[in-house]
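Format notes (please read before filing issues)

Several people have asked whether sequences and structure tokens are stored in separate files. They are not. Every record keeps both together, in the order shown below: the sequence lines, then the token lines. Line labels are part of the format and must not be stripped during preprocessing.
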Amino acid sequence: MAVPGFMLLVALLIAPVAPGKATDGLYRIDADQFSVYHNHISCTKRLSSATCTVSVDGKPLIVTLDTDPRTLVCEATFDGERVGCARTFDYGPGSHRVSVTGVSVPDAVAADLRDRFPWWGTLFDRYWVQAGLLFIGVLGPAAAVASFLWAGRPRDADGRLLVAVPVAGVVGWALSGFALMPWERFLEFGPSLLLVPVVLVMTGWAVVVGRPVTGRVEWRVALALTAFACTVFSSVPVVLWISLAAGIPD
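Then the structure lines:
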């Protein structure tokens, strides 16, 4: 049960700041000297078109874009002058993010804007892969230790686990998706092939743990090694799914 629990916990932790939540406008604007986070950007939306404004050095930086993630088009002006604008590629169905060129401000202003950028933006940009690998590295040994301890007491076979464990995986996947993306995006994007290996591995794991438990040391060691392998293997698509659902930038 560690994998679906991990999936749901991480989803709930990052849901308040997930890029995929910013589907009504812009998640962030990147310029050569600074980046601006969405809570400093004011957007108005009409149908699928959004016009977003942020004050930079007392001058309006205005970005207009189509919020449909399949339409990678944007336009921008700075202090009334046309500047370059490009949509950046991202994993998710949201995380609207643009890169503007031709915006120049004094170094002190740029430094202040960089200081206002939240730390979790850096986490998503630079350290998400490392964080995902760390989670997997911790979760695998934790599952092995938990399985070794759980198998210390002999018990009869439990066929209910064959249903309960895969169901827990599907529920964890669905709830994490609901937490990380708007409902309409989940309906469009939620069914994912990434779920297939997770369910298959968890079904195999359910078959193993549903057998009679002898409590013998060699059986416990074998179960711990199996738990480690299953957890690591299924955690990789889980991390990819969370990245995809949250709209974490590539």
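For reference, the curators noted about this record: The helical segments are 2-14, 107-116, 119-150, 161-180, 183-189, 195-209, 217-246. DSSP finds seven helices and eight strands in the chain.
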